[in-house]
Amino acid sequence: MMLAVQRSAVRGTAAAPPSKSHTHRAFILAALADGESVVSSPLLGEDTCATLDAVAALGAAVSRRGDDVVICGGGLHAPEKVIDCKNSGTSMRILAGVAAQIAGTTSFTGDASLCSRPMKPLLDALTDLGVAVTAADGGCAPFSVTGPATGGCVHIRGDISSQFISALLIGAPLSGRELNIHLTTPLTSRPYAEMTIAAMQRRGVSVITTGDGFIVPADQSYRPVPVTVGGDFSSAAFLFAAGALAGDVCVTNLDPADPQGDKMFIDLLERLGAAVSRGPDGTVRAGRGELRAADVNLADAPDLFPIAAVLATCCCGTTKLYGAAHLRFKESDRIRSTALFLRDMGADITETDDGCIIRGPCPLHGAKVTTFGDHRIMMAAAVAGLIADGTTVIDDPGCCAVSYPAFVADMQALGADMRYI
């Protein structure tokens, strides 16, 4: 099945789906807390369901209560079966940090894409903490960790993935000892680490930020707390972009105080010249305006790259997107995947090591888009199809279920001409 997109206008209101990042953390931290935690309004996508299955395999009791997920945590143990994280890097990385603090051996695998993504910096850090690690060539999955960790000080790169840091932070309280994390390179996607720290603190665990990393003090434990998962600014970016390029869209279910780094997309829209208005209730409306080029540093919000590149094709002048070299190690090489589909659609785009340069405005035309199974490529291409002449045909539209299962339905409700073929 493929998705055909025609030039069309969008108008109306849509609710941002629940945050994937918050849902992962809510499920994992609930499993680590001794007692019952209720997670309300979680995102039940392919990635977060992989996390839910994994915490159940580690010994947490998982059940559904209406739209809520109830997790009774504590007393985790090494599972009898291999944990299959499917396509979810967040699941694999954070749970590897958890498993490292559990006695026994825990094995991880995933799909072909996930098994090609970097794990070595985290696995090396776990080895330095006294964990026995066996891994495939190059330090990728499949791999096994045998805990518990015995050390309390570790050095790790911060420029590959903030998920490595979140993994070490979240697992640390299980040891009962202080953990001192020293970053040997600057931390990319820092807001995701800050999101992790905020979630830990809400559950009673303090984290100290130092000049070169973080310290998790000794003798702390997680307490169960009820959590309502807020809206996802990463997913909302596609709705905002659709409004800015093809009409007028109001997005609800967003908390402006949320630490998600991708909320910078709203400021970016204003900077580029889109019509943006913010309501007192947290709603944000995006509409068309005269878009102008800018240099945009995406180091703290790399997931925005594909949809920011689509916006840039409609900007007058030369736009440079930079600071996101680690995008080459996502579900796909997102820099190359984005450049490929936009070039096929007529964009004047040049790849760089850490982003791209787009000379606009670029009249787009329909093309056949290969998503490489990457949900953000799929959704960015669908938004681009709204302003392209002719038909844009997108392979594997179902891959958006990773983060935004209702994406096509929500876009259709706004008036987008999208249909499965």
Automatic annotation (TrEMBL):
CDD domains: EPSP_synthase (cd01556)
Residue sites binding 3-phosphoshikimate per the record: K20, S21, R25, S161, S162, Q163, S189, D303, K330
Taxonomic superkingdom: Archaea
Keyword Amino-acid biosynthesis (UniProt): yes
Enolpyruvate transferase domain boundaries: 7-410
Pfam families (alphabetical): EPSP_synthase (PF00275)
EC number: 2.5.1.19
Active-site residues (renumbered): D303 (proton acceptor)
Residues that bind phosphoenolpyruvate: K20, G89, R117, Q163, R334, R376
Location in the cell: Cytoplasm
One GO molecular-function entry: 3-phosphoshikimate 1-carboxyvinyltransferase activity
Alphabetic keyword roster: Amino-acid biosynthesis, Aromatic amino acid biosynthesis, Cytoplasm, Transferase
UniProt keyword Zinc-finger, yes or no: no
UniProt subunit comment: Monomer.
HAMAP family per UniProt: EPSP_synth
Known function: Catalyzes the transfer of the enolpyruvyl moiety of phosphoenolpyruvate (PEP) to the 5-hydroxyl of shikimate-3-phosphate (S3P) to produce enolpyruvyl shikimate-3-phosphate and inorganic phosphate.
Family: Belongs to the EPSP synthase family.
Name of the protein: 3-phosphoshikimate 1-carboxyvinyltransferase
Species of provenance: Methanocorpusculum vombati
Gene: aroA
